[in-house]
Design brief:
Elements (H helix, E strand, L loop, with lengths): L10 H8 L19 H13 L7 E5 L5 H8 L4 E6 L2 H13 L5 E4 L11 E4 L12 H12 L2 E7 L3 H10 L3 E13 L9 E12 L3
Parallel strand pairs: 1-2, 1-4, 2-3, 4-5
Antiparallel strand pairs: 5-7, 6-7
């Protein structure tokens, strides 16, 4: 296990490690399974570390997929990490990778709405809502974060941030930090028109005032 204690590890080193986390074997378009780019995942983990939201904390990765944020949090010296996803195949891939690399990360198959585990920090990259059936799906992830944690790190399409800001205000939370990224997605699903889709996304740090 390599730790980032005292920021001894460089962000680029973490990015290189996270590039090795396996991709989805058969990504499901209906739940919008996208792998968070390693450079973005590493930057978010480092940001959370600097805010004191990772080291020695209990972290939950909501909608963890194959676990890129889960493994990043554990490498950054989280006390406990739990990755939760509704997709069985993704969880199986994450578990195999954890076993192969001797990483003590717990992975659970569960719908986000049914999660009832308290933690210090939630990290999540919820569905962006490209499919009509998933429109406002990110709302469920934010609301669950308010139920179970003190701090939420969440990625959203930049154009939806005004809606998210209103939701956070209604839930009596506060957005304390924002950062924009170019999120690249390779042509994966039937609704992708280009070989490489580029989305403007924004990461929010939200405190739940608990």
């Amino acid at each position: 296990m390599i730790f980032i204690s005292n920021l001894a590890m460089k962000q680029k080193d973490l990015e290189i490690i996270l590039q090795k986390v396996p991709f989805y074997e058969r990504p499901n378009p209906y739940i919008e399974q996208y792998m968070t780019p390693a450079n973005i995942a590493a930057d978010i983990i480092f940001t959370a570390f600097r805010f004191g939201d990772i080291q020695d904390k209990k972290v939950i990765d909501l909608g963890c997929g194959t676990g890129i944020f889960s493994f990043g949090a554990k490498i950054a010296d989280a006390r406990q990490v739990i990755g939760i996803d509704i997709d069985k195949e993704s969880i199986e891939i994450a578990k195999k990778y954890a076993e192969k690399n001797n990483e003590s990360v717990q992975f659970i198959i569960q719908d986000v709405k049914d999660v009832d585990i308290k933690c210090d920090t939630v990290i999540t990259n919820p569905p962006f809502g490209a499919q009509k059936s998933n429109r406002w799906a990110d709302r469920a992830f934010i609301e669950k974060g308010f139920e179970i944690s003190k701090v939420i790190y969440s990625l959203h399409q930049t154009k939806t941030i005004p809606f998210i800001e209103k939701l956070v205000l209604a839930l009596n939370g506060e957005i304390t930090y924002k950062k924009n990224y170019d999120f690249s997605i390779k042509q994966t699903y039937f609704f992708h028109k280009k070989k490489l889709e580029k989305l403007d996304v924004t990461m929010l740090r939200i405190t739940t005032k608990k």
